[in-house]
Specification:
246 residues; alpha+beta; Arc Repressor Mutant, subunit A; Chorismate lyase; 2 domains; 6-stranded antiparallel beta sheet; globular
């Protein structure tokens, strides 16, 4: 039996189509969107799906709604930050470059077994990378995937995607997100403050007691954990935007 390939939610795809149209100038900043029936016909989608996507666009600040005017594209798109699941190199800006350090199979650590449904006797992929910004180390990325047989259950192509991606200058999340854009990935993260430590200090060429922000992230596909990651950002690393609303 061939495992079912997970699909992206249609509303998510529609949301991104409209955002891309705004970025490409199809709906310039300050312009008023067509009426709901016209927009649904243009995009070839149902009105209920379009209405849900428009609600999300309004919540995210992409459009505003004014009585008597309609839906207007915001003059300035909100900067998409940590509230959207993106690879760390994308969050750190255009000048971020990934340097692969380690690409191995290893037994799962306590952290991996805490966040991923894996047995202690299995082997998981471990990628360690340094992300440089303007030539300066800004982040240490440590990522673990579920075992290959679990990857196959999600999508048979995933083990080969990661194998091909091992020598390339990207994080594991970037590799999965770009090679499998259909995957409905979701992430949950925690942010804590700690210090760099001796081993990581050697990697950064900095003192072991350097303050750092530690981001622990679990990425899932349809409620199934796919990878766990730690991102270590020492003091002086570029800021990462977090956009909030109520």
């Amino acid at each position: 039996m061939v495992p079912r390939r997970p699909q992206r939610r249609p509303v998510v795809t529609l949301y991104e189509r409209i955002v891309n149209a705004v970025k490409d100038g199809g709906y310039p900043p300050g312009s008023t969107l067509p009426s709901e029936p016209e927009l649904a016909e243009t995009l070839g989608v149902s009105r209920p799906a379009l209405r849900e996507a428009l609600i999300l666009l309004q919540e995210d600040g992409v459009i505003t709604v004014r009585r008597g005017v309609g839906r207007t594209v915001s003059d300035r798109l909100p900067r998409r930050g940590f509230e959207r699941l993106q690879p760390m190199e994308a969050l750190l800006g255009d000048s971020a470059k990934v340097r692969p350090l380690t690409r191995v199979l290893e037994e799962p650590t306590d952290l991996v077994m805490q966040h991923l449904p894996v047995p202690a006797s299995c082997e998981v992929r471990f990628w360690e990378s340094v992300i440089d910004v303007d030539g300066v180390p800004a982040c240490l990325a440590e990522e673990w995937s579920v075992p290959d047989d679990a990857l196959v259950d999600i999508d048979p192509a995933l083990p080969a995607i990661l194998t091909r991606g091992e020598p390339l200058p990207h994080t594991m999340l970037h590799t999965l997100a770009t090679a499998g854009p259909y995957l409905p990935l979701t992430g949950a993260s925690t942010v804590t403050a700690t210090v760099l430590g001796k081993r990581r200090g050697t990697t950064f060429g900095r003192s072991s007691d350097t303050p750092v922000v530690l981001v622990t992230q679990v990425v899932s596909v349809e409620q199934t954990p796919l990878l766990a990651a730690k991102y270590v950002l020492p003091s002086g690393a570029p800021s990462i935007a977090i956009w909030q609303s109520r």
